[in-house]
Write a structure and sequence with these properties.
This protein has helices spanning 7-21, 30-45, 51-65, and strands spanning 2-4, 48-50. By secondary structure, the protein is mainly α. It has one domain. The model has no long low-confidence stretch (mean pLDDT 94).
Length: 66
């Protein structure tokens, strides 16, 4: 199930996905790269994510950003 996000949620995930696809892309595994690109592309078209996608983006972001 996809969840529409409020403005703060949209900005938060947009910034995380943007950072993962730009700044941290070279640090991602091939699976993470494919996942991030796929979710980011869909998010730009329709800014909503499933709970599982949110959790996965958060996990990848915090693994890489630390």
């Amino acid at each position: 199930m996809k969840y529409p996000l409020n403005e703060n949620g949209k900005n938060l995930y947009l910034s995380k996905l943007s950072a993962l696809s730009d700044e941290y892309f070279h640090l991602l595994t091939p699976w993470q790269r494919k996942f991030v690109i796929s979710v980011y592309d869909r998010f730009l078209q329709k800014p909503e994510l499933s709970k599982k996608q949110m959790d996965q983006v958060d996990n990848i972001f915090w693994q890489i950003a630390e």
